[in-house]
Amino acid sequence: MLLLSAVAYTAWVLEVVLSTGLDPVQAYISELAAEDQPLGGLFRATDLVAGLAVLAAALLALSAFHLRRPAPPAAGGSPVGRPWAAGGWAALALFGAATAADSRLPLSCAPTSDEMCAARETAGLVPATHTAHAVTSSLAVLGALGGLTALTVAARRYRRWPPVARYGPWLLGAEVLATGWSLGAIAAFEAGHGTWALGAGQRLQVLLVALWLALLAAAVGRTGGRDSAGPRGTFVEGTVRDAPAAAAPSRTERRDPV
């Protein structure tokens, strides 16, 4: 489901081969799904699939946390569990729900390419879905950043999901920069100072989230549900303790193996 969401979340790359009439460097990525766009229904559907798939994956992960029985404190376990991982999956659930809601609250027109649409939006003469869309989009960004941050910390702190532990910090840094670019470009556009390559910034932002989802999918599949990629063992806070081995030989046995 994580991999499905990553693929569906990059459906906007179809604009390379499909004629959308929008400038990918300047246009909001949400404008592809606007009600007045010829391919709006296609992009709304792919956004819905992406949101529902990642929401289902996150809820299943949170259910696994609820059902998992950690090792008792006497064995070195922690009754608290792994808050960074649980928080990361909760953030991804928010991202999925907001993305699905985003697809049901499309823009009515494309403000970056339609001057009349931009004027109506400035005057507040567009449907309320424009405001609702801005809210759900903001929640989706917060959920994506929160999930990326928390699950990367979890991967490094709990020694699980080696691909996420290795590449997660780089993707997180790039995502923060792309988000800053997008927010700055949106502020410039709304102030009437041009788009500042708004479309390119948003597409980079969305692409990095999709890459992160694919990386997480690969990491989860690689570990096969275990807490780390290493040998199966007993859960310990921050590590995986090897299962008890055979009793160590006594001093006499070591001296005389016969």
Structure description:
The structure is a single chain. The protein has 258 residues and is mostly helical. The protein has eight helices and two strands, in the order αααααααββα. The chain is elongated and about 55 Å long.
Question: Which features characterize this protein?
Answer:
258 residues; mainly alpha; 8 helices
Q: In percent, how much strand structure appears in the residues?
A: under 5%
Number of helices: 8
Largest sheet: 2 strands, antiparallel
- Rg, Å, rounded: 23 Å
Mean of residue pLDDT? Answer: 85
* Cα separation of the termini: 56 Å
Classify the helix fraction into a percent range.
55-70%
Query: How many extended strands?
Result: 2
Given helix and strand content, the structural type is: mainly alpha
Name the helix and strand elements from N-terminus to C-terminus, one letter apiece.
HHHHHHHEEH
Low-confidence stretches: 71-80, 226-247
Spatial strand sequence of the major β-sheet:
1-2
Shape: elongated
Short account of what is shown:
By secondary structure, the chain is mostly helical.
Layout of helices and strands:
Blueprint: H1 2-9, H2 40-67, H3 83-104, H4 115-123, H5 129-157, H6 162-190, H7 198-223, E1 233-236, E2 239-242, H8 251-255
Antiparallel strand pairs: 1-2
